[in-house]
Amino acid sequence: MRSRFIVLRLLVLVPAIFYLAALSFATGPYPVRVQRDVSIKMRDGVILRGDIFRPDADGKFPVLLERTPYRKAPWGYDIDFAQRAAARGYVVFIQDVRGRYTSDGDWYPFLHESEDGYDTIEWIALQPYSNGKVGMFGGSYVGATQMLAAIAHPPHLTGICPVVTASNYHDGWTYQGGAFEQLFNESWTSGFAPDTLAHQVERLPHSKEDLNALPLTSYPLLSLDPPGVVNVSTSSIAPYFLDWLAHPSYDDYWKRWSIEEHYGDIRVPALHIAAWYDIFLGGSLRNYVGMRSGAATEEARQGQRLLVLIGGHSGSGRRIGDIDFGAEAEKVDENDITLRWYDFLFKGVQNEFASGKRVKIFVMGINQWREEDDWPLARAKTTKYFLHSQGSANSSRGNGSLSTSAPTSETADKFLYVPAKPVPTTGGPLCCDGYYHLAPGPRDQGTVEDRDDVLVYSTPPLDHDLEVTGPVHLDLFASSAAVETDFTAKLVDVLPDGTSFNLTEGILRAQYRDSQAQAKPLRPGQIYPLSIDLWATSNVFRKGHRIRLEISSSNYPRFDRNLNTSELAATSAKWATATNTILHDTAHPSALLLPILP
Questions:
Q1: CA distance 585 to 386
Q2: Max CA-CA distance within the chain?
Q3: Sign of dihedral through CA atoms 589, 591, 597, 598?
Q4: How far apart are alpha carbons 154 and 122 in whole angstroms?
Q5: For the whole model, what pTM was predicted?
Q6: pLDDT digits (tens, 9 = 90+) for 258-277
Q7: Which residues are part of the catalytic machinery?
Q8: Which domains does the chain have, with CATH numbers?
Q9: Are 437 and 494 in contact (CB under 8 A)?
């Protein structure tokens, strides 16, 4: 009777005719042998399965492990890497994480990755073809499986290569600045739902009565007997999504698997690969900085490397969003750099990781690669660009400006934030369905800057090239007529023809102004000093361009709308309008802080 579930399963699994039991490849010094669906029992008895690619030769080899929720399919990007690496003298193990595709158990993000990662690493390290050195590779959630395994410090884990991943699964993954990452959380969760449903269906009891049902049109494709076995509600398919909404503050739910809280437990070198316009840029940079200063051993601290590409979840290649970044953007291949990292780490190859500088970044504007001693750049000078206006910075038609001169007596800027008419997300660091609904990356901000609920502050056209490389912050003095609201900030590069492209952005839910661990309502009309983290960028503003700052109270649907009430959008649909005020005078010198290179 299990045949009745094949149709559903085919929606989420590759057809069996493409799933070969074993293959041999000859793409390098070694022929490659593949073992499919290799089972490993975790400490609690749950079976996880993966595919092993290894040199078809005698001897022991270092291991590269990928643990993925995205399916260990027998084709595509990861398999190409596995075949290439195995031919080069590595054992590659690609495993479905718990509750995903071929692995048993229940899928719940982050929950089991430390223990399952530890058990998998120690199992593969003891196999007869392993030399005992295990490294990990992969990006996004696959990067999270590396970080979560590393904080458990399995003895045979010798290196990691986390790509575009987070440092804290509260701030920088599920929330940012206290605001819920709505577009990402909903689209990412929805993408997992079909396979989770398929796992539920496979557990259904089977009945002869189903087969004997007449008329045939009454055949129950998905039997609900007993009722409730298959439940397509969010609470059944994605209970973690509701848990995320139930924990908007940084509490013990999040602390248990926060990487930032456990840098001191990590004992291995790492190549951190980040990307401008990536949704996890902030976390990737924090992981490098945090492990560089706080990893468990001096060897681990000295073993940190950082590579900052362009695109990440926003795309790859020379064109990201609406900008062509030139041929240089294509010159670093993630697969190749991963192998070169492990050639250096595991085989002692004297390549760029042995002799080059610790950090390599892509500098936008001039579209060139550059090596650096460390991150942030020591020679960058934090420079305050103060906000100015005559009280009407609303839209690009207003009189808002930026300069390095401190303000004196100036009229504050006000705008009306209406949750029913939020500022639309236009480009930026998006993930997981942006190509279908909202386009990620650098996009023309003209329609956003035409709105009166967006304050716009710009420098005059620059008389020389100006490089901004490093962390970006906005120190703001603001008030609201509401008991709660958000403030958003966006750094923009304005071309001589007036076209404006976003560089980096941030948000602050005002009730988390002091700490993301505790919400404090606003007192309407009271002025508060606020700090908005815009993460970082590396961009040369060319001569004739202008530096621009946008401020508003929404960036929807990237972030959920603040309802301007004491209630959250997670549980309420009632909203109120809010008049929000930005001050910039002698007593309230609001300023954009930019790292300027001499």
A1: 9
A2: 85
A3: negative
A4: 7
A5: 0.92
A6: 999 999 999 999 999 999 99
A7: 140, 278, 313
A8: 20-161 (3.40.50.1820), 179-247 (no CATH), 381-596 (2.60.120.260)
A9: no
